[in-house]
Amino acid sequence: MTPDAPRRRGRPSRRTADGTPAARDRILAAAREEFSARGYDRTPIRRIAQAAGVDPALVHHYFGTKDEIFAAAVDLSLELPAKALPALLADGPDGVGERVARLFLGFWEDPATRGPVLAVVRSALTHEAARDIMRRFVLRNLLEHVAAQVPVPGPTLRAELAASQLIGVAMLRYVLELEPLASADVETVIATVAPTLQRYLTDPDAVPAAGA
């Protein structure tokens, strides 16, 4: 009889580490929920483990540090669709404010991405990794990309001003849930915010050249 192959040591199988399938996926889902509800500082590893129904050691086993599980839980969920950026300026700068507002608010309105963006915004004031993710998502990957392609002065400042508008709306509507903004129809919000974004991003007189 052929002897059994030796058992490989090292990192346990994803399917068997806690005796049930997809423990790693449960940990990630629990981390997204906990970080979105409480932010980085108020979410200990043991709380994530409890929500996922695993031992805290398993969380460390799969993800290492709290910083690493935070990044894993939120970062990949905030990748912009491959076709989203070219579509923003496909018809020129006219209407780009509305398209940017629709794309950004779409992440908040979509249940699949609402948790990760809540986690980032709740954590950004106190946690550097969250600030990095927010800068990359809102500024570098979205608004700076748009501003750089519109031939007007001060593209970086324009992108930051547009970001302040979007993040302010998101904070009041989705994080603080202030009424009546929290319950307003999203199309009403988009239509109201879009002209300000349009001005920041495309109006040659909105930002002086010295702001570049």
From TrEMBL:
<dbReference type="InterPro" id="IPR009057">
    <property type="entry name" value="Homeodomain-like_sf"/>
</dbReference>
<dbReference type="InterPro" id="IPR050109">
    <property type="entry name" value="HTH-type_TetR-like_transc_reg"/>
</dbReference>
<dbReference type="InterPro" id="IPR041678">
    <property type="entry name" value="TetR_C_16"/>
</dbReference>
<dbReference type="GO" id="GO:0003700">
    <property type="term" value="F:DNA-binding transcription factor activity"/>
</dbReference>
<protein>
    <submittedName>
        <fullName>TetR family transcriptional regulator</fullName>
    </submittedName>
</protein>
<feature type="domain" description="HTH tetR-type">
    <location>
        <begin position="21"/>
        <end position="81"/>
    </location>
</feature>
<dbReference type="Pfam" id="PF00440">
    <property type="entry name" value="TetR_N"/>
</dbReference>
<keyword id="KW-0238">DNA-binding</keyword>
<feature type="DNA-binding region" description="H-T-H motif">
    <location>
        <begin position="44"/>
        <end position="63"/>
    </location>
</feature>
<feature type="region of interest" description="Disordered">
    <location>
        <begin position="1"/>
        <end position="23"/>
    </location>
</feature>
<dbReference type="InterPro" id="IPR001647">
    <property type="entry name" value="HTH_TetR"/>
</dbReference>
<dbReference type="GO" id="GO:0000976">
    <property type="term" value="F:transcription cis-regulatory region binding"/>
</dbReference>
<dbReference type="InterPro" id="IPR036271">
    <property type="entry name" value="Tet_transcr_reg_TetR-rel_C_sf"/>
</dbReference>
<dbReference type="Pfam" id="PF17920">
    <property type="entry name" value="TetR_C_16"/>
</dbReference>
